[in-house]
Design goal:
Length: 89
């Protein structure tokens, strides 16, 4: 109730509705884009700055596993620590 008057809840119909004595009909045209009814797709952009790129961290266990697999396949594998400032572009 608002100041002694009950507020009505609007309703929508596709055809002319049947009305109660205290209702009025208002014709409204809606122009809505199809995209409003399509399922929204989440989207993100991730940017990594050059100053945030660090070298790959490979621990001793991973290195040993790589060497073992390489030897088992008859591959000579040499793993070296890169010099500071070396880049693989």
């Amino acid at each position: 109730m608002y100041s002694g008057v009950e507020l009505a809840t609007p309703r929508c119909t596709m055809r002319k509705p049947s009305l109660d004595r205290d209702e009025i009909c208002v014709k409204v045209n809606l122009d809505l884009p199809d995209s409003l009814f399509e399922q929204q797709q989440l989207q993100a952009t991730i940017t990594v700055g050059e100053d945030q790129v660090g070298g790959a961290v490979v621990d001793a266990e991973v290195i040993n596993n790589l060497v073992d697999v390489a030897r088992a396949e008859g591959i000579l594998l040499e793993i070296m620590q890169p010099e500071e400032g070396d880049h693989n572009d």
